[in-house]
Amino acid sequence: MTISSDEPADVRRVRRPPARLRALLPELEGARCVADIACDHALLAVEVVRTGVAPRAIAIDIAEGPLAAGRRNVVAAGLSDRIELRRGDGFAALNVDEADVAVVAGVGGRSIAAMLRAVDPRSRGLRRLVLSPHGKKDEVLAALEACRWQPLRSYAVPDRGREYVVLVAVPADPTVVSALSTAPEGG
Ligand SMILES: C[S@@+](CC[C@H](N)C(=O)[O-])C[C@H]1O[C@@H](n2cnc3c(N)ncnc32)[C@H](O)[C@@H]1O
User: Fold this and answer.
1) What residue spans define the domains of the chain?
2) Quick one: which of 23, 56, 146, 172 could link to 33 by a disulfide (CB 3.0–4.6 Å)?
3) In this predicted model, what pLDDT tens digit does every residue of 74-90 receive, in sequence order?
4) Could you give the C-alpha distances from 47 to 71, 74, 77, 119, 168, in angstroms and in order?
């Protein structure tokens, strides 16, 4: 899709994300800002904001090519003021308290586990994780346990003849979250 500056933005020109991603929307409902990590085309972030599931989103990808595709979709949808695109690696790309809910979908379970082991999402102020690993669910569960996140529910979503895992997790001890967010610098 080529977007020229004199073409009016219109969200209807942006294709809907696949069913496996649309199925995640109820888990993101009520977020202040959703971080769509490994966003690629950013179709999920566009859908989140377009449907009012959350007022804002940050779409993050480690590679410039996918981000460029994401940027085209966000501009075409006219949502540049509500969706920020950012290059970065997993949760490390987020600053503290920018987003309260993060989604990571369409990435192998081993990669998601590596993101969790690299940066505890709690340290970024995240309150809920919605993970849809492609394989290696056990590695994601082990990494969640290692950084004290508790799986709330896990289920499968059908899409085009395949089943996609969805895992929703929250901090195992919510008091740790408030202690961390109120701790003095260096404390
Ligand atoms: C197959 S796409 C999935 C896109 C979308 N989330 C979906 O479910 O359709 C995987 C994307 O993850 C990105 N990615 C892989 N590792 C990453 C990391 N550590 N941090 C951020 N993005 C990453 C890749 O660049 C790629 O664009």
Assistant:
1) 17-181
2) 56
3) 999 999 999 999 999 99
4) 14, 10, 10, 27, 19
Residue to mutate, 20, 22, 40, ligand 1, most ligand atoms under 8 Å from C-beta: 40
Q: Please list the residues that pair with 133 across neighbouring strands.
A: 107
For residues 183 and 111, give the distance between their C-alpha atoms in angstroms, rounded to a whole number.
30
Which residue stretches of the chain have pLDDT < 70? Answer: 1-8, 174-187
Residue 184's pLDDT is 45
What's the order of all strands across the beta sheet hosting 128-133?
83-87, 56-61, 33-37, 101-107, 128-133, 162-171, 149-159
Q: In whole angstroms, what separates CA 167 from the centre of its chain? A: 13
Does this model's pTM top 0.70? My answer is yes
State the distance from the centre of ligand 1 to the C-alpha of 64, rounded, in angstroms. Answer: 11
Rounded Cα–Cα distance for residues 147 and 70 (Å) = 30
Cα 140 to Cα 133: distance, rounded to the nearest angstrom: 8
Tell me the β-bridge partners of 78: none
Q: What DSSP element (H or E) covers 34?
A: strand 33-37
In whole angstroms, what separates CA 30 from the centre of its chain?
Answer: 14
At which residue do the structure tokens 């967010």 appear? 181
| CATH code 3.40.50.150 for 17-181 | yes
Nearest Cα neighbor of 94 from 51, 129, 144 is: 129
Q: Is the Cβ atom of 90 under 6 angstroms away from ligand 1?
A: yes
